[in-house]
Design a protein that fits this description.
The structure holds two protein chains of two kinds. Chain A is of the alpha+beta class. Among the domains of chain A are: about 125-220, Calcium-transporting ATPase, cytoplasmic transduction domain A (Distorted Sandwich); about 305-335 and about 445-565, HAD superfamily/HAD-like (Rossmann fold); about 335-445, Calcium-transporting ATPase, cytoplasmic domain N (3-Layer(aba) Sandwich), CATH 3.40.1110.10. By secondary structure, chain B is of the alpha+beta class. Chain B has helices at about 10-25, 50-65, and strands at about 1-10, 30-35, 40-45, 70. Chain B is globular, with a radius of gyration of 11 Å. Classes of the chains: A alpha+beta, B alpha+beta. At the A-B interface, helix 2, helix 4 and helix 9 of A face helix 1 of B.
Chain lengths: ~625, ~70
């Protein structure tokens, strides 16, 4: 609690104590009135002051004004007829309790979310004349050297020059396993250096670094408003004046009618009901809880590595029923690796060694995956007479043996009969000294969590999943079978993907949205075209962060379902709060107008609904358990 | 031009009023108040000087909500 809040708390306690005390003091008439003015003044002086200033500034429909009119009116009624001074003081008291609670709750969640997003350090360490000096990171130029000590956060993106350490990337990706970095590795700002001293050459300016960009994104996110928030703003604009008009009508019309029809107008009664109306009229439960829900939802999402660019996207994401996905990099790892060696005529390792050496001069992705699988340094002296045949493969002399590695066409050319492979992927057939020596299967690997991700999507209410890929039918079909998508579209060019997504957009029903998930490479137009574009593993890729509406910081496809569930939960809370708050208010208005509810109930309804709605809103901060 | 200012305000409704007041100030193209982050993001009109416009915004906000502050 800050100073202001503590002061309000003291005033509340003093007023409550005075009310109890006055209850036991046997005075009546005017002295009693003046005695009750003391607690009223203590608890309500700032409200009265604000109301007065509001009138001067022509801001009449202000909650302070309403509270002032209601309580002053209650005092006047008590003085003239009922003698119940407690009511006016209590209404002011509970109003202040509600305001205090709201301000504490908002402050708490504001703090917990900003702590969460506290990934950007305020200083960078540079060496000046051999001494470590902390400087403003804005002043560090690209290519400068910065030093990050253990326990510190990296302020600016860069490349490690010296030092070895493990980095905690949890704040960026939600991934809890630390990453080891060595000289030459790229490091992102926002990571926490856990063990060793790192010397880093910066590759970006502070403002362009990952941590700054993420913070900007999150801050702008809660500034763009959703339809629900707009609705609340419009509702509040109409609601307060409408209730005030209702109160005025209630105070004037029925007594007038009664008077004209020759009966007792019971003016006091009707004025009391009108004042009750005014107490109920404050729409604060709605006005505070809806933005708070979205704020908590966006904060909770960023805590687990899901950046949503605005509450309008959160709204749309919750309605996603059709999800189209890119294959490479989304469902598969996007890295080609040796998956198997079949029908080898010698030791498998030896075959791999021969093939890797034969391909040693090549930089083709397939050659590189052979090198990677071999894993040892390539001794080029063992390789002679390398002959590359475009579209076929290579032939070379390795350790004095004739090695050929390539596709079926190469084998045909050498008159070697080869055994076809039944698994989809790129196949490298080999022949050694003119004899078939088996083939090596190279394929992209399906992500371990891909199948679980698809199941989770279905549990999250997605009715159709579609995989889009530029790859051939056999590879596409196999991945589709492994992960279990509903529909596959293979052989697509990038522009075909846009067309497919447009077809899906035509297919969706009212109130549904189509999401597209890609890794941001080559699919920026598709990300932009879909209702919601989700970029995966996008850290460091500016284009993807720019084009997408939702950015998943790590590359686990299960996060898609988490994001949808989280959005749905958030929207559910928003709806609950709208219905609950408006419902209770309308009920109290009705009861108040009919004379069943007094001011006590009115203020309880106002403050109680607000407290419950705020508590409900804070639930959005917690990520649904099923997939987290 | 777009600039972000730190603000202090107590309630969400007051923040909405500040937003409306800022938007009505000459020289402001578009203003958004983020109550949760206590920030005001102001986009200025072409050629408007933030140093001249912001005091006017502050006065306008003070008028609708006495208990607010914009840190310039």
């Amino acid at each position: 609690m800050n100073k202001k809040q503590k002061q309000v708390l003291r005033r509340i306690l003093v007023t409550a104590a005075l009310l109890v005390l006055l209850h036991f003091i046997p005075v009546s008439g005017l002295p009693r009135f003046f005695l009750y003015l003391i607690p009223y003044g203590i608890i309500g002086y700032d409200i009265l002051k604000k109301a007065w200033k509001g009138i001067l500034n022509r801001q009449v429909f202000d909650e302070c004004f309403l509270m002032a009119v209601a309580t002053v009116g209650a005092f006047a009624l008590a003085l003239t007829s009922t003698g119940d001074y407690v009511e006016a003081v209590a209404v002011m008291l509970f109003y202040q309790v509600g305001e205090l609670f709201q301000s504490v709750a908002v402050g708490r969640s504001r703090r917990s979310i900003s702590e969460l997003m506290d990934i950007r350090p305020d200083t960078a360490n540079v060496e000046i004349d051999g001494e470590l000096t902390a400087v403003d990171p804005d002043e560090v130029e690209i290519g400068a050297e910065i030093i990050v000590q253990p326990g510190e956060k990296i302020p600016i993106d860069g490349v490690v020059l010296s030092g070895e350490s493990s980095l905690d990337t949890a704040a960026l990706t939600g991934e809890s396993v630390p990453r080891t970095v060595r000289p030459g590795d790229e490091v992102l700002s926002g990571c926490i250096n856990q063990s060793g001293l790192l010397r880093i050459r910066t590759t970006k300016e502070f403002g362009e670094s990952t941590a700054s960009r993420i913070l900007d994104l999150v801050e702008n996110a809660s500034s763009s408003k959703s339809r629900s928030e707009d609705f609340i703003a419009r509702f509040a604009r109409v609601y307060t004046p409408a209730v005030c008009a209702g109160a005025l009508a209630l105070a004037v019309l029925p007594p007038l009618f009664l008077l004209l029809s020759g009966r007792d107008p019971r003016l006091g009664d009707w004025v009391y009901r009108a004042l009750t109306f005014l107490v109920i009229s404050c729409p604060c439960a709605l006005v505070i809880s809806i933005p708070l829900t979205f704020f908590a939802g966006l904060g909770g999402a960023s805590r687990c590595g899901i950046l949503i660019k605005g509450s309008n996207y959160l709204e749309a994401l919750g309605k996603a029923r059709i999800v189209a996905m890119d294959k490479t990099g989304t469902l598969t790892r996007g890295v080609f690796e040796v998956r198997g060696i079949h029908h080898a005529a010698m030791e498998e390792d030896r075959l791999l060694e021969l093939a890797a050496l034969a391909e040693s001069a090549s930089t083709h992705p397939i050659a590189r995956s052979l090198h990677a699988a071999y894993g040892k340094p390539l001794n080029l002296e063992r390789v002679k007479d390398v002959q590359e045949i475009g579209g076929h493969g290579v032939m070379a002399t390795v350790d004095g043996r004739q090695v050929a590695a390539g596709n079926e066409k190469l084998m045909d050319r050498l008159n070697v009969s080869c055994t076809p492979c039944h698994t989809a992927g790129a196949i490298v057939h080999t022949a050694v000294d003119g004899q078939y020596a088996g083939h090596i299967l190279i394929a992209d690997e399906v992500k371990e969590s891909a199948a679980a991700a698809l199941t989770a999507l279905r549990h999250a209410g997605v009715r159709k999943t579609v995989m889009l890929t530029g790859d051939g039918d056999s590879v596409a079909a196999e991945v589709a079978r492994a992960v279990g998508v509903d529909e596959v579209c293979a052989n697509l060019l990038p522009e075909d993907k846009v067309a497919r997504v447009e077809a899906l957009l035509g297919e969706k029903k009212e109130g549904e949205t189509v999401a597209f998930v890609g890794d941001g490479i080559n699919d920026a137009p598709v990300l932009a075209r879909a209702d919601i574009g989700i970029a995966m593993g996008a850290l460091g890729s500016d284009a993807a962060i720019e084009a997408a509406d939702v950015v998943l910081m790590d590359d686990d496809p299960r996060r898609i379902a988490t994001a949808i569930l989280l959005s749905r939960k958030c929207m559910r809370i928003v709806k609950e709060n709208i219905v609950f708050a408006i419902g209770v208010k309308l009920l109290c208005l009705l009861l108040g107008a009919l004379g069943f509810a007094g001011m006590w109930l009115a203020i309880f309804a106002d403050v109680g609904v607000m407290i419950l709605a705020v508590l409900n809103a804070i639930r959005a901060l917690f990520v649904p358990k099923e997939t987290a | 031009m777009k600039k972000t200012y730190k603000i202090d305000v107590d309630c969400a409704n007051c923040a909405a009023k500040m937003e409306a007041a800022a938007n009505a100030t000459p020289g402001v193209a578009h203003a958004v108040v983020n109550f949760m982050l206590l920030k005001m993001i102001v986009e200025f009109e072409e050629g408007a000087d933030p140093k001249a416009v912001m005091p006017a915004v502050r006065t306008a906000c003070k008028k609708v909500e006495d208990d607010c502050e914009i840190f310039l």
